[in-house]
Design brief:
This protein is α/β, with parallel strands linked by helices. It has a single domain, classed as Rossmann fold. It has a 5-stranded parallel beta sheet. α1 crosses α7 and α3 packs parallel to α4. The chain is globular.
């Protein structure tokens, strides 16, 4: 049985940092949508800011993740970090099934709209990602985005990232997925 933790949330919620912390704590590989998408941008071009081109590469990146996980050995576990978009989540559920992921937990990352706008406009991103002007759309998404919420879920407010208990999140994931034996000793 393959297991996964889905680290989900709109851009600038700290998903990558949380996913890396979970992976390090539980000694799990981390597959990040943006890592694959940015490699595709580097190879295929950034689409000159074309949002549909970026979305297409995002969908292709997600399909690559499901295919990679499907090739993992039995009893594997993985951290998958992405924004799984708005409901319905049929494509995500189909991807989980295709990958052979039978048990998963979700870490839902969220923050206040003003924090997300500040983070998004301050960071330097690959040229294929939406520009800083996307922050206005991101502020709207922050108010309506929802987790997948079909299995175990931990909601994490990352507005004050310094106060986020990364070790506690990793312990919760380990408990939910029966991975405690993999945790590194304290």
């Amino acid at each position: 049985m393959t297991r996964a933790v889905l680290v989900n949330g709109v851009p600038a919620t700290g998903k990558s940092s949380i996913a890396r912390a979970i992976g390090a704590h539980l000694r799990l590989p981390v597959l990040s949508l943006d890592s694959i998408k940015e490699a595709l941008f580097d190879e295929l071009g950034d689409g000159n800011g074309d949002r549909e081109f970026g979305r297409s590469l995002g969908r292709a990146s997600m399909q690559a993740i499901w295919s990679i996980v499907a090739d993992f050995p039995p009893e594997s576990a993985v951290v998958i970090e992405a924004w799984f978009r708005m409901p319905p989540h049929d494509a995500v559920l189909h991807g989980l099934e295709r990958a052979g992921i039978e048990r998963w937990a979700e870490v839902w990352c969220h923050a206040s709209a003003d924090v997300l706008v500040d983070r998004y406009t301050a960071r330097t991103r690959h040229s294929g990602h939406p520009p800083a002007s996307y922050a206005a759309e991101l502020a709207q998404l922050a108010g309506i985005a929802q987790p997948i919420a079909t299995q175990r879920i931990l909601s994490v407010d990352t507005s004050d990232f310094a106060s986020v208990d990364l070790d506690g999140i990793a312990r919760w994931v380990g408990q939910q997925l029966g991975l405690d034996r993999r945790a590194r000793p304290d």
